[in-house]
Every structure is written in structure tokens, then in C-alpha cells.
Amino acid sequence: MLGAIHFGVLAACFVLFVPMAMAGWHLSRHKMLFFSGALFISLAVCVHLTPYFPSVSDIVASVSSVVVYDHRVSCINEVNQIVWDVKPRPRNNNSNNNGSSKLDYFEKNWDWVRSRKVLSCEFQKLDKFDVSELLNGSWIVIAGDSQARFVALSLLGLVLGSGSEAMGSVREELFKRHSDYSIMVKEIGMKVEFVWAPYEKDLDDLVVSYKKKNKFPDVVIMGSGLWHMLHVNNASDFGSQLKELRSHVELLVPVRTKGEEGGGGGVSGRSMHMFWIGMPVLINGMLNTDEKKEKMSDTVWHEYDRSLGESKILRQMGGPLVLLDVQSFTWNCGPQCTLDGMHYDPAVYDAAVHVMLNALLIESHQTL
């Protein structure tokens, strides 16, 4: 359409201005004849171009859709932009005898940065009511290693209430070593599954199983890397496994192009939303075994991070998965937010959950 319009405008300019210039040259003494001819040619050009232009309403709708798309893409790119305020809590003389850990010595608060771009996106920390409304009737799968398990805990704490009696049972069941977990929140018809899948091949098998069964969750949150780093310790192999995973995810949820945004969901009209939990910053001196300190060095960590980027599995690299930037969160929260250099304060995973929920609002065209 745009090509036809451009061609039509070019032809119109040629038809309009060339004869007018020639007429002006030869009929400069006959102004009435000149302007009559110019008017005739202008009317002819307008009639000629009419078929190439859509209605005004179509133009407005087209421009609006482009603006909305660009705003959504911009906000997805900004959703991980958060800042931390970590400061010591007031301590009394009995603070060492009340069973508190080092994590309790610091107060940790976070929020989105106050830049113009981020403020325009109107990100928000959702409460239990908002989350229940957003995830009502959803099937949510969280798959991966211990980082994914903490994300599952934070999400359920937001839905059920972190201090509720139900969460006591959830913590006990969810943290059974290397096991899966499933819960149905009957009040809102939401099913949450945690799948222990510490290797990328485990995640790949999970994705393929959904395709084979033709049953697809509404939201999938996955992440891996730490187990591969410790037990395989080969960043190149890690990257290859991620590329294989990406190929199957793209079959499950095709990567949307600009023209496809807003026009239905994933496969067969479903709207399926997928997220990747980034690896945390590892503080080598705080790791609790010599094997971890040797195999999970800063150099190896950076090699794995580079392989993640090169796999192009993340949306920011042209892939299908929206990043939950735990790397950034842990770096900015700092060593005050971890006991073992690998697993971090619940506030970090709470931030990841809120980032996911805000991205989900953008992706699903919803407001609260």
C-alpha cells in the first residue's frame, strides 16, 4: 500500500508541476489562462490519487496501533529497571540472641527508577487482589533449579499471603529436595506448578511435552545454568543446549513480528507468555564448598552469561523469552542480600515476580 502511495505521489508531482512550470513559462502574459490550466491539472491529480489513499479513520487507526506497539515494546525493555535501597536495621543489645540471620540485619527496599521512560510505563507493585484478578483461572508453570523454586515461593506468597497459615504448608512441601510441586488455589481457579528441571535438557523436554500433549500453560517461567556450571562446567555446551531449547520454544510460541503484534496469541490462537529467570551474580568468596569456588569462578560465570546472550533465547536478543533480570537485581542488592553467595534474600525474588506480573500486563493488553 505504501509503495503504491509513494509511486502515486511521485507521478502526481510530475504531472502537476512539470506542465505548470512549462505553462508558466509560455503563458506568463496570460495569467487567467495559466491559473485555469493549473486548477484543471490539480483536480485531475486529485482524482487520480483518490484510490491510493485509505479513509481518514483507517489512517488514524494505523498510526494509533503503531504508537501503542512501540510503547509496549519500550515498556517491556524498561521493566527490569529497578533500584535498591539497602540499609542496616536498628539493632538492640539482644539482636544476637533472637535467632536472626545476617539477612535480617539489613532492610531492603526496591522500586522502579524514576526516569521519564519508566514513569510513562506506570509500573506498579501489585497487591493480592490485583494478582488474583490478573491470574484468575490461569495455569502457571515455574521450572528450573533453586532460583526458580524461590520465584515460585514469592509468587505463592503474593497470592496466598506471605504470613498465612497456607504458606507454612507451601514452604514445607515446595522445598522438599529436588522434587516437583503443584497447588490449586481454588478461590481464583489458579493452578501453580513447580517443576524441578535444573538442566536445559530438562526444560527442553518439558516444552516438547506440552507440544506433544497439545496442552499449554498460560504462563511459563523457566531458568537454569547453575547446575550446568557446577556439574558440566562447559559454557559452549550450555549455549548449544539453550539454542536447542530456543528452537522448540519458538515452535510452541512463535516470535511475533511487528505486524503480528496484537493479532491473537500463540499457537492456535492461544496467548502463552514465557519468561526466563536470569542467573544471579555469584559471590565466589561466599560459596559454601571448594568445588563451587573452583568451578563457579567469575571467569566461568561470565562465559556462561555470554553463552546465554549468544543463544538469542531472550526477547532483547530477538528470541521468545522475556528476561527477569535476576543478575541485575542481585548485583544491585549486593552481598548484604545473600548468605551463601548464590541464593538471595526473598526481596530479590519478590522483585522478579513483580517484574513478571507487569510484563504480563503489557503482553496481555490488560490494566488494573
Brief summary:
The protein has helices spanning 2-26, 31-49, 56-78, 116-121, 128-134, 146-160, 165-174, 200-213, 226-231, 235-252, 290-295, 298-310, 326-333, 346-363; strands at 82-88, 106-112, 139-144, 181-185, 190-196, 219-223, 273-277, 322-324.
Characterization of this structure:
The chain crosses the membrane at residues 6-25, 32-53. The protein has a 6-stranded mixed beta sheet, sandwiched between helices. It has a two-stranded antiparallel sheet with strand order 1-2. It is α/β, with parallel strands linked by helices and 368 residues long. The protein has 2 domains: 17-64, no CATH class; 71-90 and 100-254 and 270-364, SGNH hydrolase (Rossmann fold, 3-Layer(aba) Sandwich), CATH 3.40.50.1110. It is globular. The chain starts with a helix and ends in a 5-residue tail after the last helix. The chain contains 14 helices and 8 strands.
Write the layout of secondary structure elements.
Layout: H1 2-26, H2 31-49, H3 56-78, E1 82-88, E2 106-112, H4 116-121, H5 128-134, E3 139-144, H6 146-160, H7 165-174, E4 181-185, E5 190-196, H8 200-213, E6 219-223, H9 226-231, H10 235-252, E7 273-277, H11 290-295, H12 298-310, E8 322-324, H13 326-333, H14 346-363
Parallel strand pairs: 3-5, 3-6, 6-7, 7-8
Antiparallel strand pairs: 1-2, 4-5
Keywords: Membrane, Transmembrane, Transmembrane helix
Protein name: Pmr5/Cas1p GDSL/SGNH-like acyl-esterase family protein
Organism: Brassica campestris (Field mustard)
